[in-house]
Design brief:
Shape: globular
Structural class: mainly alpha
Distance between the termini: 56 Å
Number of domains: 1
Number of strands: 0
Order of helices and strands: HHHHHHHH
Radius of gyration: 18 Å
Helix content: over 70%
Strand content: under 5%
């Protein structure tokens, strides 16, 4: 587990631009699959915002929300993929019926639902910190020109 975390940290330190939200999401999924008990015990999900910070700051830094409002969806897409994974929808390959695949709450364990909720909360924190501030600033700036 520490080997994977050290590799992620080394990649962030050496070339932060090469680290994508997709790669971080994949790393979290891999860690959870390989070490589910340790993942929950040590709260590894709480590392994701800090690990994603350079990438998210770079994306949000060049973002103009009034010109390209959809970019926020790119940031949220990987987080939502992680939420779905923890809900059990993306790793539910052993289900036999279509109905079981559609009902993720029936297949998710209590732990997975908790991790999905934590992922949503962390996503909201990241969006609030890096994206919504920029939206508010640009709206406030644009109102000065209207008035």
């Amino acid at each position: 587990m520490m080997v994977v975390l050290n590799k992620i940290q080394a990649k962030i330190n050496n070339d932060p631009a090469a680290v994508t939200l997709t790669s971080l999401t994949s790393a979290m999924i891999s860690l959870h699959e390989a070490f589910p008990a340790e993942f929950k015990l040590f709260g590894l999900l709480r590392l994701l915002p800090k690990l994603a910070e350079p990438t998210t700051e770079a994306l949000a830094g060049s973002w103009e929300p009034l010109v390209n409002p959809a970019m926020i969806l790119d940031i949220c897409a990987d987080w939502l993929r992680l939420v779905r994974y923890f809900q059990g929808s993306s790793n539910n390959s052993d289900s036999n019926t279509e109905n079981e695949n559609m009902n993720t709450s029936a297949t998710a364990t209590g732990e997975d639902v908790g991790l999905a909720g934590q992922t949503r909360q962390l996503m909201h924190e990241v969006v609030e910190r890096h994206c919504l501030h920029k939206v508010r600033t640009q709206i406030a700036t644009s109102w000065r020109y209207v008035l």
